[in-house]
Model the fold of this input.
Amino acid sequence: MSDNAKQTSGGYRYVVLAMLILAYTFNFLDRQILGILAKPIKDEFQLTDAQFGLMGGLAFALLYTTLAIPIAWLADRFSRVWIMTAALTLWSGFTAMCGMVGSFGQLFLARMGVGIGEAGGVAPAYSLIADYFPKHQRARALAAYAFGIPLGTAAGTLVGGLLAVNYGWRTAFIVVGLLGVLLAPIFRLVVRDPPRGGADRAPDAPPVAPAPAAPVGQVFRLLAAKPSFWLLSLGAASSSVCGYGVAAWLPSFFMRSLGLTLGQTAWYYSGIAFLGGIVGIWMGGAVADRLGAKSKAGYPLTPAVAFLISVPCFLLAMNSGSLVGGLGGGASLTVAFLIFLIPTGLNLAWLGPITAAVQHLAPAPMRTTASALFLLINNLLGIAVGIYYFGAVSDLLRPTFGEESLRWSIYTGLGFYLLAALLFFLASRRLDRDWVE
Done:
């Protein structure tokens, strides 16, 4: 067995996966910390829900999505590890700067800087995982990588909330940003760039020279001709509109509608994000790998069914207080917590299966660029539209519903999960024809 084969088949690949998960955790920690800090930031700068949603969504997504394409072009040609190291340093540095701003405009620009850095954090990681893990393990490996989402969301909510309560919201940004800067050199020392497409070969197959990376236009033309690419991308984007929006606004919902303090919300929502997210993501990847071994349709069908189940569960969780009101405030909060775990897990079950399927819509030399094009559609709609949508609708409904306007805003957004289920179901009917082994 060659050294390269040993590198991608032995225990070292799990060390790499752990480092990628850690980097992704900081990615989402720096991204999602804004949700728990919404109230003190809005109070200081006198912002409406729509203004805050614009900052949390468009400010981040504008450069995050557009710069991902040229960065992916570089990652298909040069060291993915160096690109991720630079990205981690950059987004963490801008996160720390968020704690030093003196106006809404400065905070808006600092969040744009976070987006610039994070543009180089995800697509190269997808490509690295595809080159470290064989096809029959990729959905689970990508699902494990996606653990960074609940870990980062939980850490950002808990650490950010507790730091804000005790030291102010500015300290929260500075501390988590500096921790990410310290992680960057460790990441560079530990992670190595594997041969592209190495995990697609048999362990004893002789190494072959990697094919040259393709131009972005060629990758786009290849993907654009495949209906499953559009269905998977738009399905993921639909789910992300609600997913990012809910993640950003649930802390505010807990404070407004359930009466929790900032500190209580930090513990409450971090527990929901961590427990529900970890179980849901792993189950999504494991089920999809099992079903996908029999039929490629299993990859999109797994999250399609999960979304259909999650919507009524989410509605039940948001109204559990009225259903068990006789139990008292503490008991009803416990019931709500337990029910919220179900849709939180189901709504993240798409990450492993769909990202694994996208990896198989293009050959190995195109994977980073293909992932970036998928993420462009997913995040431009999901982040830019989702966070703003919930804030804008909340403002629109405030004259009618008052402090409960955010609750009704979230109700309307759940329709995006149903749309995602439909698009993934349609993708399951085309995926086998568009698959690249």
